[in-house]
Design goal:
Helix 5 packs parallel to helix 6, helix 15 packs antiparallel against helix 17 and helix 18 crosses helix 19. Helix 9 links the parallel strand 6 and strand 7. The chain has 456 residues and is an alpha/beta fold. Strands 5-6-7-4-8 form a five-stranded parallel β-sheet, sandwiched between helices. The chain has a three-stranded mixed β-sheet with strand order 1-2-3. It is globular and about 70 Å long. It has 20 helices and eight strands. Bound molecules: adenosine-5'-triphosphate.
């Protein structure tokens, strides 16, 4: 019997040879082998969603892949970090019972006519999508749905703030599905286009055609469904479209800036249907992800940009990737106009005039973290980390306190920027520093100095 390391290496190599890089990265690279005993392999995966996908799809493929070389069938038990090692916990793992979501394994659709015009943007693929903490689950769910449409999460519902990649992921699902099944019929629309198509069909007496068009797809992607609010007739029609596709086990993917039950004037029966599948949120990217997105974009545009300039731009825009990309393009335009290289001071100059605002004066959490770390002689990594020695806890709490005072970021958002901490930790830090300030003159001096430096 091979040891754990050899077995895992073998699995990685085999999987890498047989599947696309994105599949490999999403399901294998995020997994960690834990134990191999009694022909049973325990693998730790990041979330329940990953575990479900492993159970349903990855595990059978690996078992089959290994059967010939090993000469026997191994058992694979995926678990999340919170779950005990099933081999140690003794309890036989519930392999399928833990599925939280409705699934249906009877998907296999008939051949469809080839549809060229599915309104997909070529740039929005899984390959160009940078995965980070805020979007890891959404990305994994998107890939699961693209690879096995109608099986896992139907509907798949993305929600989250503006410019965070919901549309990008929806298009990526469409591309991936067409790559796997070139004859599939994929349709991407915004909720407004759906409403317009519907109204036009009434005006031109082509309702039957409209229904035929929307109800014959294999994958329907409807973006920004918050704009269904107030459109009673459109909601009614969409309800029937949804039912027809769902009953036919066709995949539906929806997006909105908020959860279904928070969309005003959305019919209750639609809200409840939208909850049948999986709702997954996308939160703003952390600093490292923002840098990775900028790097990718710069590489695609063949731009040469120093590391510190990436950090500078990523420090300025922390809650909307569209703005982040826009900033990079602006810097590029500035450099092209002046025939000069891209440097941090050029970037500062370019972004300063953005909307006529002094944009480089905008306070962001990474700027606060850097300033506080320097002031207390610790590193930003330590500030974001979990070490509980006083020399680090105080700077960490001060940085959280200042982030709350000097930026508009919410408590969860601040927690996320501090290495993914809970919002209650941020609140605790804020309250602790506020209390200490009542009778700690030294701390008061530190904070006043930092504030003065930060607000220059
Ligand atoms: N993780 C990511 N990796 C690379 N690019 C991204 C990522 N997330 C978003 N983007 C890019 O940011 C821009 C905005 O993304 P997108 O349009 O998908 O946002 P959205 O959440 O649909 O916004 P809206 O709520 O305005 O519809 C796009 O150009 C997209 O390619």
């Amino acid at each position: 019997m091979p040891d754990l390391e050899t077995l895992w290496q073998f699995i990685c190599e085999k999987f890498n040879e047989s599947f696309s890089t994105i599949t490999y990265k999403t399901w294998i690279e995020t997994a960690k082998p834990i134990q191999f005993a009694d022909q049973t392999l325990v693998v730790e995966v990041p979330s329940k969603l990953h575990r479900d996908y492993w159970t349903q799809s990855v595990t059978p493929q690996i078992v089959e892949m290994l059967q010939e070389p090993l000469g026997y069938k191994i058992t694979i038990l995926p678990k999340t970090p919170d779950e005990p090692n099933p081999l140690e916990a003794y309890d036989p793992v519930e392999k399928t019972a833990s599925r939280e979501l409705v699934t249906d394994s009877s998907q296999k659709s008939a051949t469809k006519t080839f549809v060229k015009n599915s309104q997909l943007n070529e740039r929005y693929t899984f390959e160009t999508f940078v995965v980070g903490k805020g979007n890891q689950l959404a990305h994994a769910a998107a890939l699961a749905v693209a690879e096995e449409p109608g099986v896992f999460y139907n509907p798949l519902f993305f929600y989250g703030g503006v410019g965070l990649g919901k549309t990008h992921l929806m298009h990526a699902i469409g591309h991936q599905m067409l790559e796997n099944r070139p004859n599939a019929k994929v349709k991407y629309v915004t909720s407004e286009s759906f409403a317009n198509d519907f109204i036009n069909s009434i005006q031109t007496k082509r309702q039957e055609e409209f229904r035929q068009e929307y109800r014959s797809v294999d994958l329907l992607l409807v973006d920004d469904i918050q704009f269904f609010a107030d459109k009673v007739g459109t909601q009614e029609e969409f309800f029937h479209t949804f039912n027809a596709l769902y009953d036919d086990k066709k995949q539906i993917v929806l997006s909105s800036d908020r959860l279904p039950n928070e969309i005003p004037k959305l019919q209750q029966r639609l809200v409840s249907r939208f909850k049948w599948g999986l709702s997954v949120d996308i939160t703003p990217p952390d600093f490292e992800t923002r840098i990775a997105i900028l790097r990718n974009k710069a590489e695609a545009e063949h731009l040469e940009i120093p590391n510190e300039t990436f950090s500078y731009i990523a420090g300025q825009f922390d809650s909307n990737i569209r703005e982040l990309e826009g900033a990079l393009m602006r810097v590029q335009a500035y450099s092209a106009m002046g025939h000069t290289k891209i440097t941090t001071s050029l970037a500062a100059e370019a972004l300063k005039s953005l909307n006529g605002k002094e944009h480089n004066n905008k306070m962001t959490i990474p700027i606060i973290q850097t300033k506080v770390a320097n002031y207390y002689n610790v590193t930003v990594t330590e500030i974001k980390g979990r070490k509980r020695v006083k020399a680090i806890v105080t700077p960490r709490q001060v940085a959280m306190y200042l982030s709350r005072k000097l930026t508009d970021a919410s408590l969860p958002r601040i927690g996320q920027e501090f290495g993914g901490k809970d919002h209650t930790t941020v609140l605790h830090a804020y309250e602790k520093i506020t209390k200490r300030l009542e009778n700690d003159a030294e701390l008061e001096h530190d904070i006043e100095t930092l504030k003065a430096e930060l607000q220059i």
